Amino acid sequence: MESVETPLGCIKFEAKVSGSTKIKILDLPCTLSNGMTLDRVVTCVLFVEPGVDGAALTFAAHLDNESLSGSPESGECLDCVTWESSNWALSLGTEDGDALSQRLKILDSESDEYPISYSGSGLELRLAGLERGKALSFHFIVAYKRLPDSRECSTWFAVDVPHELANKAMHATSA
Question: Choosing a second label site near 159 at 20 to 30 A (CA), which of 29, 34, 79, 107?
Answer without folding.
Answer: 107
